[in-house]
Write a structure and sequence with these properties.
Elements lengths: L8 E3 L7 E8 L2 E8 L8 E5 L19 H7 L3 E5 L17 H18 L6 E6 L1 H12 L5 E7 L9 H4 L8 H4 L10 H5 L8 H6 L3 H9 L6 E6 L9 H9 L6 E6 L12 H22 L2
Parallel strand pairs: 4-5, 4-6, 6-7, 7-8, 8-9
Antiparallel strand pairs: 1-2, 2-3, 3-5
Helix pairs in contact: 2-3, 3-8
Length: 299
């Protein structure tokens, strides 16, 4: 792992808690992303991982400032880092086929370590992941061995598909709009025009693993030993979220604390919708639970 000087950053917004572009070195791979910092020493570091075919800007929605997880987290005293996962953003040229989940986890661990060392950041970390980014967050947590991980908060994934194998392996890579978004009324005006800048192709190696998650999840879950929260959107179409399926899924985790929630009036892309702020506030409430649990267990 290479450890450069302080990461490069350039502002991309002019609000009180400005969101900046950032690059981080991770084992020879340069990852890009967005960073928002509080005015005082951060109480925790939130690391957000986007889904397949998206970018870090998913967590800084521009159609409505209220949808930005990064700005909200910074305003509440946390540092918030949204990374373009390996194969996206700056690293796309280095990794034209992307990486599988196991490799992504190692790369993301290196990136977070680089950030914490370069910023002298000893605050605990909450991993937040959406869809494929949720899988990457869980895989990263399963490999986290150095301490400092507070918990994992994921949305847009389960462990049992609600669609047929044919729908997962469509040759042209396209799926009906409703699968990714749900009813259009769930999103602020301008969302789909502005989201065009975020949408990109899913790297080949990542795409090849998509259908395997139900077989991979049990092995990953048994190595996750921190608090975990799953959120299911009311209009989620990819994953089963019935009580029995969710109960079995959560039981596979070795976590000291688990939470599940169903969010009304939300589609798969929760963080770009009208209920994004509700969801993000609940992410931060869970982060507070994780902080309290960590403090209670401290010697």
């Amino acid at each position: 792992m290479s450890l450069p000087g302080p990461p490069n950053a350039a502002p991309v917004s002019g609000d009180e808690h400005a969101v900046h572009e950032i690059t981080l070195e991770a084992g020879g791979i340069t990852l890009s992303g967005l960073l928002a910092q509080p005015k005082s020493r951060p109480r925790a570091l939130l690391v957000a991982l986007h889904g397949g075919g998206m970018r870090a800007g998913y967590f800084h929605g521009r159609a409505d400032p209220a949808t930005s997880l990064l700005s909200l987290a910074a305003s509440c005293g946390y540092a918030a880092l949204a990374l373009d996962r390996p194969g996206y953003g700056r690293s796309a040229a280095q990794l034209p086929e992307g990486m599988g989940l196991a490799e992504q986890a190692e790369c993301l661990l290196a990136a977070v370590t680089t950030y914490r060392l370069s910023r002298s950041c000893d605050a605990g970390v909450l991993l937040v992941g959406h869809s494929l980014g949720g899988k990457a967050a869980l895989c990263t947590a399963a490999r986290w061995t150095e301490g400092g991980l507070l918990g994992v908060d994921v949305s847009g994934i389960g462990d049992r598909w609600a669609v047929s194998p044919q729908e997962l392996t469509m040759g042209d890579g396209r799926h009906p709009h409703r699968m990714h978004w749900g009813p259009l009324a769930l999103y602020p005006p301008g969302t789909f025009q502005l989201a065009g800048a975020l949408v990109t192709s899913v790297p080949e190696r990542e795409a090849r693993e998509i259908s395997r998650w139900p077989d991979v999840y049990p092995r990953v879950a048994r190595d996750v030993r921190v608090p975990v929260r799953f959120t299911f959107a009311e209009h989620e179409r990819w994953w089963r979220s019935d009580p029995r399926t969710v109960k079995v899924m959560m039981a596979r985790l070795n976590s000291p604390l688990t939470r599940t929630e169903h969010l009304a009036d939300a589609g798969h892309n929760i963080s770009l919708g009208r209920t994004a702020r509700t969801y993000h506030l609940r992410v931060l409430v869970f982060l507070e639970e994780c902080l309290a649990l960590a403090e209670a267990g401290a010697p």
